Amino acid sequence: MSIWWSLHLRREAASVPLARRLLLGTMETAGVDPDVSYDLSVALSEACANAVEHGGDTAHGGCSEAYRVTAYLDGETCRIEVADSGPGFTGGRTPRVDRSVRSDTYAEQGRGLYLIQELADHVHIGNKPGRSGAVVSFDKILKWRKDAPLMAV
């Protein structure tokens, strides 16, 4: 079983729950375990929120009003990629997320990349090769409900 979809979304806060609901609906329909679906939906929300907040550079005349979300459910794995058209990470360097340092539980910012790394099995964070923009991709091994209609064989 293989399912994939891609969204081109405006960099607006309202786009975040839209992407999250689509992911949750897809995984529920496929028969993915609700706990795995929830973890991936939180990680997706954090990645989208980062793209909305940091993924644009309208001051330099760039086309940065949108970002892209792509999700793949393929066999036993779900892979999600969120790519924006902003300036990317400073100096082209991938940000280092130190898992031993936990941000303030009540902080409004600074927890997103940490949460993504905690909720996913594999995470890649970096700049788009040869173009401006950042890419956050992550995947997780899927667990299936016993009555899953689209369970991988």
Brief descriptors of the model:
153 residues, alpha+beta, 5-stranded antiparallel beta sheet, 3 helices, 26% strand
Q: Give the oligomeric state of the chains in this entry, treating copies of one chain as homo and distinct chains as hetero.
A: single chain
Strand % is: 25-35%
Could you state the order of secondary-structure elements as H and E? Answer: EHHEEHEE
Mean pLDDT, all residues: 85
Uncertain segments of ≥5 residues (pLDDT<50)?
Answer: none
Radius of gyration, Cα only, in angstroms? 16 Å
Strand order of the largest sheet: 1-2-3-5-4
Which range best describes the helical content: under 10%, 10-25%, 25-40%, 40-55%, 55-70% or over 70%? 25-40%
Structural class: alpha+beta
Largest sheet: 5 strands, antiparallel
The end-to-end span amounts to: 8 Å
Please sum up the structure shown.
The protein is α+β, with helices and mostly antiparallel strands and 153 residues long.
